[in-house]
Amino acid sequence: MTEPLQERIAQAMAELQATQAAVARAEADLRQASATVRSSDRVVEATVGAQGELTGLKFLDNKHQNMTGPQLASSILEAVQQGRAQMARRVMDTFEPFTQPGPEGSARRGIDLDWNRIFGSALDGDQARSRRSGRDRLRDEIDEDSQ
After folding, report:
1. Cα–Cα distances in angstroms (integers) from residue 133 to residues 19, 96, 112, 129, 130, in the given order
2. pLDDT along the chain (147 residues), means of 10
3. With the CA atoms of 137, 33, 123 and 69 taken in that order, what torsion angle do they form, in degrees rounded to the nearest 10?
4. Cα–Cα distance between 119 and 116 in angstroms, integer?
5. Which of 82, 85, 114, 144 could lock onto 37 through a cystine, CB 3.0 to 4.6 A?
6. Distance separating alpha carbons of residues 89 and 83, to the nearest angstrom
7. Which residue, 82, 45, 83, 85, is CA-closest to 61?
8. Per-residue DSSP letters for the chain?
9. Is 57 within 8 Å of 76 (Cβ atoms)?
10. 32-48 core/surface letters (b: 16 or more CB in 10 A; e: else)
11. pTM beyond 0.85
12. Cα separation, 31 vs 104, whole angstroms
């Protein structure tokens, strides 16, 4: 027997409100989030916010004084890019549950996000780039079969 329409609407509204509350909590958590990383040569420490913005930069132990400009620039860029990639992964992990469909009988269908469009170069050369949703992989398989 099918549920009355009013019950299904009430269930969908409750699910929507729960999802909206969870998204608001995730956004609030991420507003306070940051990643601090060091360059591989241990010369630079960069702190990056949740939106990929540089919020702090430190030169460690005055090692930068013995570097050329291009070497220092390379260390800075490396640390900042690592921080951006780390924050991108954290944002992706935080919002991953919302990209999945809800449980059986749920009205939630999940959303399909283009993480590369959202994060751009923050994902370049990073493992997060390969973390596509199952729907993307399935779509790729279907496209390959139709050729």
Report:
1. 19, 9, 8, 11, 9
2. 76 84 87 94 95 94 93 95 92 84 66 72 53 43 49
3. -170
4. 5
5. 82
6. 10
7. 45
8. -PPPHHHHHHHHHHHHHHHHHHHHHHHHHHHT-EEEEE-TTSSEEEEEETTS-EEEEEEGGGGGGGS-HHHHHHHHHHHHHHHHHHHHHHHHHHHHHHHS--STT-S-------HHHHHGGGGTTSGGGG---HHHHHHHHHHHHT-
9. yes
10. eebbebbbebebbbbbb
11. no
12. 32
Residue where the block lists tokens 């995730």: 26
CB atoms within 10 A of CB 87: 24
Q: Is 127 left (phi over 0), alpha (psi -120 to 50) or beta?
A: alpha
